[in-house]
């Protein structure tokens, strides 16, 4: 029997970018101690009060089929949060709850693209983006952002591809670079989307992790609310990665279509998880700041460590839980450096090549272990780079 071309072609015939991560996990399974600086998962788990609320709601019986669009209370809470942060009028009719941000990305492209449509995304990108677009039936088309521009996409690069496309996917604060798009960049993106009639899909799961400047949702820019689908999630803001609770915010008629899609695919998110998400969101911005605080600290630690060496270059990290380091002075690709670091020192990082051609020669370091261990690992990484360069 022949498998579908859609499923066989998700990775475009190459690697899905997770090879170093999988090798590190295999080493751990074999009993080898590995320092993991790979995936974006907090070193602290979901806070006890959120888990207690989840348990309480499950024991109270909210374990059956939940409302497919999401519970009214969660949709209302998300809408109020978005309106308060952006100033854009938002109600539950603008919100559909999804099983995490990844499902939201897929659903948003199902809404924006017909089979065969060109869907734009920006390199460097989160590793799942191209496969997500292919899975939705779209044809991925990359727009390259350059390291010398601090990975802010240029207007001419956007304009060169926009006329033939149906959608544009952006991510700010950005994974993997840590870059926060400037107001000028976002205005340019909005101009291109309006001029060429593009859907904008804005991945904003790191909106609570901004170290410099401020996060601006492009949905709040003039003429963009009717053409923007915002992806959000509980995972990063509330350390609820395993709970798989996210959302899409967009125009009412598109949300209605996405509810129909959910009826035929995921059939909603467990009710007790949604109840716990309402509880978590109502803990307020101070709680979200506490969840983000370790990454702000570790960014400062990294800057101090990096200032004491001259081999690696640090891409300015303005947000999110990652650092992007330029390792080209070692003479190795990002992938070769990552494998060598894993073999020699049992430290696992993600190769820049996992995130696109623009990130080649770089590595992504997740700031997701305890402060002292993070500092030690980063110092070892820098020494390793210095030895290679010498």
TrEMBL record:
InterPro entries: Aminotransferase_I/II_large, AspAT/PAT-like, PyrdxlP-dep_Trfase, PyrdxlP-dep_Trfase_major, PyrdxlP-dep_Trfase_small. Keywords: Aminotransferase, Pyridoxal phosphate, Transferase. One of its GO terms (biological process) is amino acid metabolic process. Residues 35-380 form the Aminotransferase class I/classII large domain. It catalyses: L-aspartate + 2-oxoglutarate = oxaloacetate + L-glutamate. Its EC number is 2.6.1.1. SUPFAM superfamilies: PLP-dependent transferases. Its cofactor is pyridoxal 5'-phosphate. One of its GO terms (molecular function) is pyridoxal phosphate binding. It comes from the Bacteria. Belongs to the class-I pyridoxal-phosphate-dependent aminotransferase family. This is aspartate transaminase. It comes from Roseobacter cerasinus.
